[in-house]
Structure formats: structure tokens, C-alpha cells
Amino acid sequence: MKSARLLILLGSIVLFLGGLAHALGYVKLFPMIAASNLRPDLVSALRCVWLVFSAHALLLSPALVWISRRPGTRSLLRYLMLIPLVDALLMYHFVGFFLGFYMLATATVLLTAGAWLMPASEA
Fold it and tell me: Are 4 and 122 in contact (CB under 8 A)?
């Protein structure tokens, strides 16, 4: 039980830091993207996807820690860990290897291991 919660905590910290780094990257990179000659609707779509990814990483990480402290939440944790898993797979497919992928993949492995180690219910 303790090792499962520790893995979920560590995975959530990595996920949170990745979401924070992604959000901070928005501040630095988006003036350059907005100044490019991309169509305005594509710039808006990119802005939306960028911020949505950051927001769900920042919001999901504390929720996973909170849920892992509740009894009988193994199936919910296993389901929610699919979010960073799908993100990592899509990121690998479309962007490839880079620091963000490694952070997300690490968080996914930690969260998956923690979710699978959680007991079915607490007595």
C-alpha cells in the first residue's frame, strides 16, 4: 500500500512539473509562434491545445494523489492513468523523443505501477 502511494506521489510530482514546464514554455514560445506567418485560426488552435495539455497535467496530478489516499479507488486510478499514457503515446508518435516526452513517460510508468499495486479494497 505504501509503495503504491509513494509511486503515485512521485508520478504526480513529475506530471505536475511537466505541466508547469509546459505552461512556462507557452510564455516563452508563443510570442514567436504568434509572430510567425501561420494562419490566425491555426495559432489559436495551437494555443488551445498547448494550454489544455498544461491544464490537465496540472489538475490531474493533485487529483491522483488525493484519490490514491481514498479506500477502494484502484479501478479509478487505473482508468485515470490512461490519460498520461495516451498523451505519451501521441507525443511519441507525433513529436518523438525530447525532454517533455521523457518526463511524461516517467510519470506514466510511476503512475501505472502505483495504480496496479493498489489493493482492491482496504480492510
Answer: no
User: Strand, helix or coil at 81?
Assistant: coil
The burial class, CB within 10 Å (0-12 / 13-18 / 19+), for 60 is buried
Q: How far apart are CA 46 and CA 54, in angstroms?
A: 12
- How is the chain split into domains, by residue range? 2-116
Nearest to 22 by CA among 98, 109, 120: 98
Length reported for the chain? 123
Question: Angle at CA 3, nearest 5°, toward 23 and 68?
Answer: 55
Give tens-digit pLDDT for 5-64.
999 999 999 999 999 999 999 888 888 888 888 899 999 999 999 999 999 999 999 999
Identity (one letter) of the amino acid at 74? R
Q: Rounded to two decimals, what is the model's pTM? A: 0.88
In eight-state DSSP terms, residue 37 is S
Q: Nine-digit cell at 101?
A: 516526452
Say which residues have a Cβ less than 8 Å from residue 109's Cβ, sequence separation at least 6. Answer: 11
